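Final report, results section. Input specification for complex C-07:
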Amino acid sequence: MTKWGMVIDLEKCTGCQACTTACAMENNRLPGENWQDVLFYHEGTYPNVNLSWLPRPCMHCENPSCVAVCPTKATWKTEDGVVLVDWNKCIGCKYCMIACPYGVRFYMDEKATIEPDTRAAFPGDGTRSWNPPYRMPDAMEDPSKGIGIQPHGVVSKCTFCYHKISKAPKGVADLDEANPATREHTPACVRTCAPKARYFGDLDNPESRVSQLIADKGGVRLKEETGNKPQVYYLSGGGAPVVPGQRSNKKA
Amino acid sequence: MTTAQATFKPGLHLAVAAVGLIIAAGYAFSQLAGAGHASFNTTNLGVVWGLPVVVYDYFLLTSTGLVLVASLSLVFGLRDFDPLVERCIRLAIAGLVGGVAVLFLELGHPFRALLTAPFALQTASPLFWKILCVGAYTVVLVLLALDLSGRGTVGVGRRTLGIAATALALLVTLIAGSVYGMMAMRPFWFGGETPVAFLIESFIGGIAFTVFFTYLAYGFSDAGMPAGLKALLGGPLAKLHAAVIALHLMFVLGRAITGLWSNAEGLQVWQYITAQPLFYVGLLGGTVLPLILMAMPSTRTRASAQIVAALLVMIGLLISRYEFIIGGQQVPMFKGSWASGLVHYAPSPTEWALLVVAVALANVVYALAERWSSSRNG
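Structure output:
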């Protein structure tokens, strides 16, 4: 069975946020509430400052704590390893947001993260929390998988562009924008990445590019201590931690 | 009815609570109807459970604590505590109503929660068990209240109902603690001691509310109080109160000191919390002072000291619950460059109004029950 996963090469990533923008366009995201984001960190003080960044999609964990804590089973994991939210079952308790170690979930009824609140200019109708000008076609929406414009009162998250990858040819090892057969099935963040820092494929297939990169370049996962086992791996070159701890920025 | 009880007017209590409820609920509903949950100061940057969740847990644990106080008579047969039982159960129901009402205004889809959560059978989720147990706890409490009032019985006996209510109160409290204690990704909350701390806080809250509302029923005076009740409030109950406050103090200090000492990521929030005046208001005003008042023989027998200690504990526990729930969310998790450091949160006017809604609604329910009881006895 396919187990979709992603590899992000931090030595190639330029922090350009094209992935963030592509995700927002593809998945109707409110500015600032990005399913895919690039986080910036700075360590030290001038003139000895180090700036680093980390692209952060949902980790689609093997043992997702968000699935375990959801009291209504609204958050679930597909057979091909993708964690989704059923908006028809979500009660908006936000326990998944509490339990996710990676901060990748969003409850959009709250105050906008970035002002001005774009929702005011594009108010929603019915259950939709807003009507983005760059919305996906209605036919693509699937609330049972958390795909579409986020309704009121529910939590949302990155779907690995499930509306695209779920229609990929069976048995394919990699979803790569360079391959015409898989281009349309490649997640938006992967497809748009200019320095080609992202790879997407089947983690259970030893022939896939993602499996080979993880093996050859020592792919690491975030917060291994939680036991969530992310299906997103980072290639950091091995010389530094992927993410600096907040306390590492403080003087002892 | 005693002279002192005659001086107290449940009707006035009801009127004040009802006016408070109308004003607070009117404001909160107008805000929620206009802006929805954007009228809260919770955001996706980190603090997603704000004051309404604090209020819900505070009232829920107060409710279970009141049942634990009642269990001293109902389950353990301590006859000295008999005069408190009916009031404790009434207060437990009132607190539960107030807390759950606020939770309903906080949830995205409260009615969907009622329909789906009990049948989802997501046994891995502490919230699933909490919803299930709170539902059963509510039913048993109502049956127990009816049995105590003499208006209805389910034929299983008061002690059986008392044991069921106590067991469910314990379960609800421990599961409420586990909701936070199981979160290994949030070191501020994580640990097996969290449910135990919740149990202790619940019991202290139960005692404090029992003392305060017993005195309220007697016009804040022990002049017309039956001798047995007066002796109980100034004797065993006051000593028990002091002992449980001391336990709570040890937990608070233990957690704060180990948190301050540790270099672990996620525990730096202790440095922030202990730098805030609110921490010392809760620690000194809400814990140490009532402990002194209840520990010293010269003060614990005085009605005024018992009332003040109860009030301080009630406020102190709310502060403690607030610091615990908010503090656990202040270290952001991968939320982007704009959320580095600690996430700061202060409740919005709507969130404060929901606290008033809970307090007022619980008082309305309790005052109605008192009136009903007075009319029955009178």
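Chain B touches chain A through 47 residues (CB under 8 Å). Chain B has 15 helices and no strands. This concludes the modelling results for the funded period.
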